[in-house]
Amino acid sequence: MTGARLRLYRIPFSTNVERITLALTHKDVEVEYVDVDPDDRGPVVEISGQELVPVLVDGDLVLSDSPAILEYLEERFPDPPCSRPTPPAARSYAASSTGSTRSGSARRT
Ligand SMILES: N[C@@H](CCC(=O)N[C@@H](CS)C(=O)NCC(=O)O)C(=O)O
Question: Whose Cα sits closest to atom 2 in ligand 1?
Answer without folding.
Answer: 65
